[in-house]
TrEMBL record:
Pfam families per the UniProt record, alphabetical: BLH_phosphatase, Pyr_redox_2
Listed InterPro entries: BLH_phosphatase-like, FAD/NAD-bd_sf, FAD/NAD-binding_dom, Prot-tyrosine_phosphatase-like, Sulphide_quinone_reductase
GO molecular function: transferase activity
Record key words, sorted: Transferase
Domain FAD/NAD(P)-binding: 130-250
Domain of life, per lineage: Bacteria
Protein name as it appears in the record: Sulfur transferase domain-containing protein
Species of provenance: Collimonas rhizosphaerae
Annotated transmembrane regions: none
Residue ranges constituting the Beta-lactamase hydrolase-like protein phosphatase-like domain according to the UniProt record: 12-110
Length: 535
């Protein structure tokens, strides 16, 4: 038997590509129905067509159905169609595609399957093993999985990710200005899992790197040869007293959450007078420019509507500078002045009373003394402190601050040689942005495979990150920089000048690059720098 069968439960299994001569084996194994999820002609017609399979199945007494699906365009309609088929076909049913992954994801979309490890009936004493395990199915996890499988198509890869949805978070700032449809920022996770990767729909609860194991939130263990850690970070809303209870109402919002960004736009479009507060917590946070981008875009709208003069705008930043890269501060300060916003540095949001429209900030004065100040508001855009996920920060992988501790150039763990990390969970000093992940995915994929082959880790990450600072509708300051604040502009233009071309890049080009290139392992402008030295 040249194909692999994965049994999800007693009624349904999936398999890699089958041929006509495999059908008697499938019948002998007890299956009564076959579903083909691979479109005819997908590989130039080298595999058996659905017409030939249907005829062969009929001759053997097997039921057959053809449900073709493009691996890159799975949707809930595929799941609904499978649900209808399973209601009519005699069981047990075997569905197949090139690797079996597509069929598994369609089954998941039908809401008829729990995580693969559970569906197989595995208990706590069962151990599922993979060559490469990726923890996290966000931007970093999908991008690095695709880059790995592009380089090593036969690699056995598992992605541990509990969420059924995947978000393009960089557009949420635009959603908060009424410029971008929030529905275009979310897609089913199943439609993005690269073919060849196995999706384990659970969360990692415990890392056991001394034993090459991960414990899932259902108690099951996953074993790995190589581990990639990229579960992102956690938004610690609870660290601001009263904030969680009032989010999404009482004028309190945040573009850092999918369901709240539309509320930001509702508040901005309705506010005609009063006080608008914007906050930014201490670093590190994802997209360090996002808190002030919310302010700029809101002020731009109010200025265009002629109401800005009746709105008192205040930006409270827990840091000591408006932006971490000094070269961009003068240009940004000109916009702060244009919008007549009050900038309060070293002012940290600590408490919110939404019903009474009050916020409290711990503010440090020039002498280093901190006092708590109460401020009324009509609108509050709050950004929470951000920390590593508990499973990482409580593990041997973490540094003193809780982040996964890696070499900043190779992105390999400093103590565990078969562990790599990328994305927001990293201990690296770069800006936590999708642009950084686009570069990091290439470095990790290249270096992990080099390590497996016993070769030097030549791919180097230079700390590249990008922050398209949307200072007004139609103009963006494209801040690109690396370690130490070194400017790393992609284009030969003064990066401190707000440009319409950068706005078009932010609003139209980059979303396309994300969905069509980055998550597919197509590494446009993402090649790493290289060194002949070992890390």
């Amino acid at each position: 038997m040249s194909f692999n069968i994965f049994k999800h439960n007693d009624l349904f299994s999936t398999a890699s590509q089958i041929e006509l001569e495999d059908l008697p084996v499938i019948l002998a194994a007890g299956y009564k129905s076959v579903i083909c999820n691979r479109p005819d002609g997908e590989d130039g017609g080298h595999h058996a067509s659905s017409k030939d399979l249907a005829a062969a199945c009929e001759a053997l007494g097997l039921a057959f159905s053809y449900l073709p699906a493009d691996a890159t365009h799975l949707s809930k309609e595929h799941g609904m169609a499978l649900r209808r088929l399973l209601a009519d076909l005699p069981a047990p049913v075997l569905a197949f595609c090139r690797t079996g992954n597509r069929s598994t994801n369609i089954f998941r979309l039908a809401n008829l399957i729990d995580a693969p490890i559970q569906a197989a009936g595995a208990g706590n004493d069962k151990l599922k093993q993979y060559e490469i395990v990726i923890v996290g199915g966000g931007s970093a996890g999908i991008a690095v999985a695709s880059s790995l499988l592009k380089r090593a198509p036969n690699a056995q890869v598992a992605i541990i990710e509990p969420s059924s949805l995947h978000y393009y978070q960089p557009a949420w700032t635009l959603v908060g200005r009424g410029i971008f449809d929030s529905r275009k920022t979310v897609r089913p996770m199943a439609s993005l899992i690269p073919e060849g990767a196995q999706w384990v729909q659970h969360a990692a609860a415990e890392f056991l790197p001394d034993h090459n194991r991960i414990r899932l939130d259902n108690g099951c263990l996953i074993a790995y040869q190589q581990l990639i850690v990229c579960p992102g970070l956690r938004l610690a809303w609870e660290k601001i007293e009263g904030l969680e209870q009032t989010l999404g109402k009482n004028g309190v919002t945040s573009n850092y959450r999918y369901d709240l960004a539309p509320y930001t736009w509702q508040l901005v479009s309705q506010l005609k007078q009063g006080k608008a507060l914007f906050s930014q917590p201490a670093m590190p946070i994802k997209c360090a420019g996002a808190p002030q981008k919310a302010m700029y875009l809101s002020c731009d709208y109010w200025l265009r509507k002629g109401v800005l003069k009746r709105i008192e705008v205040e930006f409270n930043n827990a840091g000591s500078a408006l932006f971490g890269v000094a070269a961009f501060v003068p240009a940004l300060m000109r916009y702060v002045g244009k919008y007549q916003a009050r900038l309060v540095l070293e002012s940290n949001l600590v408490k919110v009373d939404g019903e009474n429209k009050l916020a409290w900030f711990d503010v440090k004065d020039n002498s280093g003394n901190t006092s708590r100040q109460q401020k009324p508001f009509d609108m509050l855009h709050a950004v929470p402190p951000q920390v590593a996920p508990d499973a990482v920060r409580n593990s041997p992988l973490a540094n003193a601050d809780g982040w996964c501790e890696v070499d900043p150039a190779s992105l390999r763990h400093v103590r565990y040689r078969n562990v790599f990390a990328l994305g927001d969970v990293c201990s690296t000093a770069n800006a936590k942005t999708v642009a950084a992940i686009r570069k990091q995915a290439v470095v990790v994929a290249s270096n992990l495979l080099a390590a497996c082959a016993g070769k030097p880790l030549d791919a180097r990450y230079d700390g590249y990150g990008a922050c398209p600072l949307t200072v007004e509708k139609g103009k963006v300051i494209l801040a690109e920089f690396g370690y130490g604040g070194k400017l790393l502009p992609t284009f030969r233009l003064d990066p401190t000048i707000a440009r319409r071309s950068a706005w078009l890049l932010k609003t139209s080009v980059l979303p396309w690059v994300y969905w069509k290139l980055m998550l597919k392992g197509r590494e446009w402008l993402a090649k790493s720098s290289e060194s002949i030295e070992n890390p």
